[in-house]
Write a structure and sequence with these properties.
- This protein has 233 residues and is mainly alpha-helical.
- It has 10 helices and no strands.
- Helix 2 crosses helix 5, helix 4 crosses helix 5 and helix 8 packs across helix 10.
- The longest helix has 32 residues.
């Protein structure tokens, strides 16, 4: 069982030293009531067994309601700091108790996961694989988009229709956005070409400026070594 022991060692090490990793998980694991749907649930396939919480997370889940009651005015980030500091200072024998609880849950999880994988049909496995790959691509795109934004990437102008819509926003009043948008689509469709041309010219002008700014920004990114964020024009 050397592989299992090595895994437990790594998980224990991350629990003790990698508190920044677990801080992000507080938001979904401990404080949010509505978890996201799993890939299997989205596909209408029975869900994979849930990975058990680590020793640290078991401790945190038990301390959370107590700390909330004792500190009703404290923010989430402050509660996280209190719990992680408590874990750092926790007696080793106490920590070992939580780690042992985790190990028992982990062994049960491995058995359940094995049975689950054996129960899936080849078609279900392929659908899950494709969905996971698409999710990774989507996540990579989100990260890249955020990085571009942080680096001051110029924003691409909207279409000529968007310029038309912006010019009409003052006429919305208390109308729902959906109804307002439907009305504008009809107006845009019936708008004379001579009127549409005005908005198309606005779009063309801003698009030319965008391309110039984008070309300059791309040069700066290449000079900085940020080749991954460079966009085609």
């Amino acid at each position: 069982m050397p592989a299992i022991r090595e895994l437990f060692s790594k998980l224990t090490h991350s629990n003790v030293n990698g508190f920044h990793i677990w801080t992000r998980r507080f938001n979904t694991s401990l404080f949010n009531a509505t978890p996201k749907k799993t890939i299997e649930e989205k596909l209408g396939i029975p869900s994979r067994p849930k990975r058990p919480p680590s020793g640290f997370m078991i401790y945190a889940s038990e301390r959370r309601p107590i700390l909330i009651q004792q500190n009703p005015d404290k923010k989430l980030t402050e509660l996280v700091k209190i719990i992680t500091q408590e874990w750092r200072n926790l007696d080793k024998s106490k920590k070992d108790e939580f780690q042992e609880r985790f190990k028992k849950k982990w062994m049960k999880y491995l058995e359940e996961t094995k049975k689950y994988d054996e129960s899936l049909s080849p078609g279900e496995k392929e659908r899950i694989k494709i969905e996971k790959e698409e999710a990774k691509i989507l996540q990579a795109k989100k990260i890249l988009k955020k990085k571009r934004s942080e680096l001051g990437c110029p924003k691409k102008p909207g279409s000529s229709y968007m310029y038309f819509m912006q010019s009409k926003l003052s006429e919305r009043h208390n109308e729902s956005f959906m109804d307002f948008q439907q009305k504008l689509k009809v107006q845009w469709k019936d708008l004379p070409e001579s009127e549409k041309k005005k908005y198309e010219e606005m779009y063309k002008k801003d698009m030319e400026e965008y391309r110039e700014k984008m070309a300059e920004w791309n040069k700066q990114m290449l000079a900085m070594g940020n080749r991954d964020v460079v966009r085609s024009l």
